Amino acid sequence: MEKLIVYPKIPTGLLRDEEAFLAGFKPALYTLDSKYIGIYPVFIERCPKRDKYFYFQSEDQRQRFSDQLEKIAERDSDEYHELIGLTLGFPPQAVKDYLYFRHNLYERRIYKIGMSFAGIDCGCHIDNVHDCVRWLWDTYPYPSEENILHIGYKGKEFPIEYNCFEKLDDVLGLIKNKIKQTILVNI
To answer: Which of 39, 74, 163, 187 has the fewest Cβ atoms within 10 angstroms?
Structure first.
């Protein structure tokens, strides 16, 4: 028996990754849920505790992912995490920063900036926020009156309207001041 899936209307505001995938914005979805098997092309990664499901918009995407994953020996390697990040539609620079932060926990604690837009939740180094935001806005110009980017740092969230680099610069200025204070306190 087929599962009944209720597809969302084109959402406004902050999208969850699943909503963005179902609406066709996000290229792939990673989940522990099997509910889309038979509806979307899927790659199942068998794991001892719980399987991982990677759903794709097309069979070609699924096959490319499978072929690339086959070449990676270690599942917790940088190469593996890079493939996952790029497959899920994260900005390439955010993926590079993620790999850097995996090995530099002190730096991550101070310089990592979170961002959420069009169902893409990722982070990057503060020095690379402009590049990542530009990439997100160019890659996911989804139709919405509220096309809002959310920047997060140390539990605070800052909404930024689509293509408003002036406000982004203001927010980054506030965050950089906070970082300077943090560094001075730790000296």
So the answer is: 187
